[in-house]
Design goal:
The protein is mainly β. It has 2 domains: 137 residues, no CATH class; 92 residues, no CATH class. It has a 15-stranded antiparallel sheet that branches. A hairpin with a 7-residue loop joins strand 8 and strand 9.
Length: 264
């Protein structure tokens, strides 16, 4: 049910969404299974992806989407229009007539009123964009999940920062990530990735990846340094090498461990 308003330079629309689900069968006990609901899967039929059972009971999913786009003329073809920047806002929640005890508690879908799920995308220009996902209690007193990413692009260079935080029923994650890539040409690229765990104030890994591509072959070299595994502060340096021949197969020997030293 879209509600659309167009002007010479902007396109606006609001789209309410409703989804009614009913399952007469009881589901297996998945209360302690980890499942996250967001705007990408909240309207899906099998949004919990349990495999051995479907979400039990009756539920009504309600949401709304608002999108505003700035339209410009294509410089090469005046008959074509292009979107220069846009704002996209989505919001949804799930209500049911009674609680369902077997639904994963991290999803909050078993409650009579689930969390409020939302997503905001804002493209300021072709060079800069933001993406924010959240999950909050129905009264907005606590945001149990926050994910904010920023992407910056200039010609062959791009970098993306991601901040992710969980609390309450959702979990305890608290990380900061960066992914930076430079494309030299159609065949060669270099990429750097890192992630820092703010919960324990430690860097988890550094990745440096070189990749070569042509029409029938992809070859890559990856250097990875991990600073800890589980509860052990054991730095490990590894080197990976892989070759993919299209459309046959990928050859990747076991990683080469460069060193392994325990931090005192």
């Amino acid at each position: 049910m879209p509600l659309i308003k167009n002007t010479p330079y902007y396109q606006n629309y609001i789209e309410p969404k409703f989804s009614l689900k009913f399952s007469p069968h009881d589901m297996k006990n998945h209360l302690n299974s980890g499942r996250r609901i967001n705007m990408d899967n909240i309207y899906s039929i099998d949004r919990l992806s349990m495999g051995d059972s479907f979400e039990s009971g009756e539920s009504l999913t309600m949401g709304i989407q608002y999108k505003k786009s700035k339209i410009i003329d294509n410089k090469d073809n005046k008959d074509l229009k292009e979107i220069e920047r846009y704002l996209d806002f989505k919001l949804a929640t799930v209500i049911r007539n009674k609680e369902e005890k077997n639904i994963p508690k991290t999803s909050t879908l078993g409650k009579r009123n689930s969390n409020l799920f939302g997503n905001v995308k804002y493209n300021l220009s072709k060079n800069l964009s933001f993406n924010y996902n959240f999950s909050a209690k129905k009264d907005l007193s606590v945001f149990e999940y926050n994910s904010l990413s920023t992407e910056i692009k200039f010609d062959n260079f791009s970098t993306e920062f991601l901040y992710e935080e969980e609390q309450g029923l959702i979990g305890t994650k608290h990380v900061l990530e960066n992914n930076t890539k430079y494309i030299f040409n159609d065949s060669n690229s270099l990429e750097f990735r890192t992630r820092r765990n703010k919960e324990i104030n430690l860097t988890e890994y550094y990745d440096l990846i070189y990749e070569y591509k042509n029409d029938c072959l992809t070859a890559g070299i990856r250097y990875k340094k991990k600073y800890y595994n589980d509860n052990d502060l054991v730095p490990v340096e590894e080197l990976f090498f892989s070759i993919t021949i299209v459309p046959f197969a990928t050859f990747s020997p076991d990683q080469l461990s460069l060193n392994k030293n325990r931090i005192n």
